[in-house]
Amino acid sequence: MRLTLHGHACVSVGSDSDAILIDPGVYTPDPATLLARADAVLITHEHADHVDAEALGAALEARPALRLYGPAAVVEQWSALGARVTPVAPGDTFAVGSITVAVHGGLHAVIHPDVPRAVNVGYLIDGRVYHPGDSLEPPAADVELLLTPVSGPWFHLDAAVELVRALRPARAIAIHEAHASEVGLALAARLMGQLAGVPLEALAPGEAVEL
Hints:
By secondary structure, this protein is α/β, with parallel strands linked by helices. A hairpin with a 5-residue loop joins strand 1 and strand 2. The chain has a single domain, classed as Ribonuclease Z/Hydroxyacylglutathione hydrolase-like (Metallo-beta-lactamase, Chain A), CATH 3.60.15.10. Helix 1 packs parallel to helix 2 (53-62) and helix 4 (157-167) crosses helix 5. The strands form 2 sheets. A 7-stranded mixed sheet has the order 6-5-4-3-2-1-14. 22% of the residues lie in helices and 28% in strands.
């Protein structure tokens, strides 16, 4: 299995035969090309930096085999596509070819008490890789590789450290970095590594790791 970071919250995970794209948002470079390669798209929540609705809608129209999974509040706009679109909630499981996906999460992290919390799910891929979306709540699961948010108006370093401590993954890779400067990202990585005991890896957009 290979994991590739495409910038901010967007990653692809897959094998030679099956490909999952998670959270292709408006910060994602060339989402049309990524969507053209995917067998399924997983969306964690409704914010535009996690779902480019225009690009996703065009891909769904152009590719009848493409499947979409996400919270009902996100995917209901494409409900006319029938079985190709699946609303998911915590506790659900499904398969994309040979890859199993378990749904966790619940709500987006608090931005401010005056801002309603969006429904936010996290995805555990093949029992190994966890993408939390914009939540810092740990799932009740073993995680080998944690995609770890490092910036955003809702980001709290203490909660991110506690997420890593709770899950104790073998690896942690930084995501959701678009709101951080290079200096801020390096500082967050250093502090999280020191406090959580798991080095935080920072990949360049397009960089891949083998699992």
